[in-house]
């Protein structure tokens, strides 16, 4: 037993980061060999019922408590700001140990898709030359991000053995590039009332990045409200987002009813019924159908916008970056390119610079995804997408980014409401060897047939400036003027 304990302790040293690297002005200490896989761990202690809190306790007992963070106590951007500035200082003083820690650093984030998206946004905003790759622990209800990269969709064990096993998987995981996407919404300032996004009782993490731009932001336009943000998994609009909004509102009002994943999923299905998602043709106003609500345009090649014809029965539209939606389902599937309607489509790669655009009529249509080759209505693959809302089509709609929904008021007297999605860049993520997400860089794929060069148009909704390139997820991330963190290597 003593030998096993010693072996376990030795293996944990491969992940351990000493305090002097994490805390500025801390006392110097004798350090062991550089760990093979130093990790920073960010946990949403409120996710997964009691699981988040239990996981926090276990990680802090196994690692240096200063390398494990509760995002509810300290925002990730603040923690990373402190650590990276300290690393820069140590490197400037010739500390080779700190340099190697930074080169080998990996991040673990445990929470729902919203928490994972928050971390990805913060790391993206840092603009590091070698940003740390991120592993996602499935601690939410949908867990689309972890599932897409092989980390599963069931909530994890929180005991010592389960955590040590997960750490070993992180050490052996492969790095992948995934696309991320910028979303911009602009509408004329209403004469009265507000058009700010209405979140379910409080602002979800992923909506921290979807906020109104500042007066000094180059995207700001006088007389208009301009919002921007970003996503990694999907953007959806319509009835699926409405059901999600009802679920999140109910969970905020009665958190005691949402203590485990099975109960959460059951409640979600019930809300799908009460919101009319299963009987949409009878209870859902036709004015809220996508075709009646907005005109949709897509761009696959630079400069070539085209109108996208949306069937009149489509009540929900999903713009997918990953092959994982609504708890791990793949709405796009693998198109049979021998069929004429699919000849220009490709499988869903996570780094090809394209979003898959899929439509759904109702919940019954969604159930088709459970069939072996089931899929939604494939509408397009696009490098950029633009929604132009019809004047007076509706006074609101529901939108959702990476599992986090909001109700979006629309001015009824304005015909200039525009939502545009464009390719933003790529981030590093950790994946298991057998994950379902595929890269155009995989030997089995044919990169020459996929992807699209980065496009910038001359209209007001596209800018190449620094503010456009940032998500805004790290609002408190302020670097002193005398340090250029973008060139940290």
Automatic annotation (TrEMBL):
Region (Disordered): 432-489
Top-level EC class: transferase
UniProt entry tagged with the keyword Iron-sulfur: no
Enzyme Commission number(s): 2.7.1.107
Biological processes per GO annotation: defense response; phospholipase C-activating G protein-coupled receptor signaling pathway
Molecular function terms, GO-annotated: ATP binding; ATP-dependent diacylglycerol kinase activity
Catalytic activity: a 1,2-diacyl-sn-glycerol + ATP = a 1,2-diacyl-sn-glycero-3-phosphate + ADP + H(+)
A Pfam family hit: DAGK_cat
Keywords: ATP-binding, Kinase, Nucleotide-binding, Plant defense, Stress response, Transferase
One of the record's GO cellular component terms: membrane
Residue ranges constituting the DAGKc domain according to the UniProt record: 34-187
SMART domains, A to Z: DAGKa, DAGKc
Cross-referenced Gene3D superfamilies: 2.60.200.40, Probable inorganic polyphosphate/atp-NAD kinase, domain 1
Transmembrane segments annotated in the record for this chain: none
Compositionally biased residues, Basic and acidic residues: 460-489
SUPFAM superfamilies membership: NAD kinase/diacylglycerol kinase-like (SSF111331)
Transmembrane helix keyword on record: no
Family: Belongs to the eukaryotic diacylglycerol kinase family.
Quaternary structure note: Monomer.
Function: Phosphorylates the second messenger diacylglycerol (DAG) to generate phosphatidic acid (PA), another important signaling molecule. PA is required for plant development and responses to abiotic stress and pathogen attack. May be involved in the accumulation of PA during cold stress.
Name the UniProt record assigns to this protein: Diacylglycerol kinase
């Amino acid at each position: 037993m003593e030998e096993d304990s010693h072996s376990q302790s030795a293996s944990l040293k491969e992940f351990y980061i000493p305090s002097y690297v994490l805390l500025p002005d801390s006392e110097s200490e004798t350090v062991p060999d550089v760990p093979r896989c130093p990790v920073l761990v960010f946990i949403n202690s409120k996710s997964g019922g009691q699981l988040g809190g239990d996981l926090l306790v276990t990680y802090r007992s196994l690692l240096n408590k200063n390398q494990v963070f509760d995002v509810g106590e300290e925002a990730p951007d603040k923690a990373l700001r402190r650590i990276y500035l300290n690393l820069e200082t140590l490197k400037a003083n010739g500390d080779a140990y700190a340099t190697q820690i930074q080169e080998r650093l990996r991040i673990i984030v445990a929470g729902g898709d919203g928490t994972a998206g928050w971390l990805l946004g913060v790391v993206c905003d840092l603009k590091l030359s070698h940003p740390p790759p991120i592993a996602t622990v499935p601690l939410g209800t949908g867990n689309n991000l972890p599932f897409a990269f092989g980390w599963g969709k069931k909530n994890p064990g929180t005991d010592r053995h389960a955590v040590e096993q997960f750490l070993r998987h992180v050490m052996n995981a492969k790095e992948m590039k995934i696309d991320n996407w910028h979303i911009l919404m602009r509408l004329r300032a209403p004469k009265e009332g507000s058009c700010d996004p209405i979140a379910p009782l409080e602002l979800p993490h992923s909506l921290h990045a979807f906020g109104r731009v500042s007066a000094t932001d180059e995207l700001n336009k006088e007389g208009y409200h301009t919002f921007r943000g970003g996503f990694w998994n999907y953007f959806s609009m319509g009835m699926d987002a409405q059901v999600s909004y009802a679920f999140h509102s109910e969970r905020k009002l009665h958190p005691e009813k949402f203590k485990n994943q099975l109960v959460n999923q059951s409640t979600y299905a019930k809300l799908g019924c009460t919101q009319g998602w299963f009987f949409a043709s009878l209870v859902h106003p036709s004015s809220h159908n996508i075709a009646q609500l907005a005109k949709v345009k897509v761009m696959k090649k630079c400069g070539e916008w085209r109108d996208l014809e949306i069937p009149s029965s489509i009540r929900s539209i999903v713009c997918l970056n990953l092959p994982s939606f609504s708890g791990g389902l793949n709405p796009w599937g693998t198109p049979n390119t021998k069929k004429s309607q699919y000849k220009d489509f490709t499988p869903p790669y996570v780094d090809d610079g394209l979003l898959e655009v899929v439509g759904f009529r109702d919940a019954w249509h969604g159930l088709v995804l459970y069939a072996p080759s089931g899929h939604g209505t494939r509408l397009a693959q696009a490098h950029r997408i633009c929604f132009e809302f019809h004047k007076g089509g509706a006074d609101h709609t529901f939108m959702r980014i990476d599992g986090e929904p909001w109700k979006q008021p629309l001015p009824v007297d304005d015909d200039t409401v525009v939502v545009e999605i464009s390719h933003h860049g790529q981030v590093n993520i950790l994946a298991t060897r057998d994950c379902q997400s595929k890269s155009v860089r995989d030997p089995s794929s044919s990169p020459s047939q996929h992807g699209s060069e980065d496009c910038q148009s001359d209209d007001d909704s596209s800018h190449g400036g620094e503010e456009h390139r940032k998500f805004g997820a790290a609002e408190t991330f302020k670097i002193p003027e005398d340090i250029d963190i973008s060139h940290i290597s």
